[in-house]
Design a protein that fits this description.
The chain is α/β, with parallel strands linked by helices and 239 residues long. The protein has nine helices and ten strands.
């Protein structure tokens, strides 16, 4: 569902933020994307979502080329950015209706999905209030609802657990599992290795724009016997 093939992104003609990186995320998979700060994770996600164009390579989302079929590719994505601080003068429900309008979600479908998700995240009572009155965690919950209101097959999440309380974090992880079980794809960046260990079918590790690892955690741990995942990560990214 995600094909990222030989992709390169260069800043200021010299800095390779992403250097000839390739990976795939298939339907039914939850894939964790990790690496040190400045490793190229955000640049990768911005290219996956069409915010930044790649300098080289090919990106396909749900079979659609992100350059040639941008509307279809973006319509297939549910994207949660790393910052929820946007459109704060709107009420929560106004923001959700705006996003639903962008994706041409019918009134019946949007009402059903918003009600289900808002109840799941315990946000129903807050939807009639301006977003500027929300806590950071409440804004993050609203971004999750907005990203899912059009029921996209591919989820691309940038540090989605940040700011969520334990219950909401648990609900989001359960939703990710449910989404993958339906044959859809989930790709998310994280610094929390315990989350990746418990949730992911495979992990992708990147450092300074270069791909270090793409595979299952079981295979990674078998290559580094008697080491914790944290120690493996530190060894790979520091050396």
């Amino acid at each position: 569902m995600i094909k990222f093939k030989n992709v390169t992104k260069v800043y200021n003609r010299t800095i390779k933020a992403v250097n000839n990186v390739s990976f795939e995320v298939r339907g039914g998979e939850i894939v964790g994307f990790t690496g040190p700060n400045g490793s190229g994770k955000t640049t990768t996600i911005k290219m996956l979502t069409g915010i930044l164009p790649p300098d080289k390579g090919e990106i396909k989302i749900n079979g659609f080329d992100i350059k040639k079929n941008m509307i279809q590719a973006k319509s297939s994505i549910g994207y949660i950015a790393d910052s929820p601080d946007m459109f704060l003068r709107l009420k929560g429900i106004e923001f959700l209706n705006f996003i639903a309008d962008v994706y041409k979600v019918s009134n019946d479908d949007r009402k059903k999905r918003v009600n289900e998700l808002a109840e799941r995240f315990e946000l129903t009572d807050a939807l009639s209030s301006p977003m500027m009155s929300y806590s950071h965690g409440m804004r993050q919950k609203l971004m999750v609802i907005a990203a899912l209101v059009h029921n996209p097959p591919v989820w691309i999440l940038d540090e989605p657990m940040t700011g969520l309380d334990p219950k909401s974090s648990y609900e989001l992880k359960e939703m990710m599992r449910e989404h993958a079980k339906k044959g859809n794809a989930v790709f998310f960046s994280t610094h929390v290795l315990e989350v990746a260990e418990k949730l992911c079918d495979k992990v992708i590790i990147i450092k300074k724009g270069n791909l270090l690892y793409d595979g299952t955690l079981e295979n990674l741990e078998s290559q580094h016997l008697n080491q914790t995942l944290e120690n493996i990560f530190l060894e790979m990214t520091e050396n």
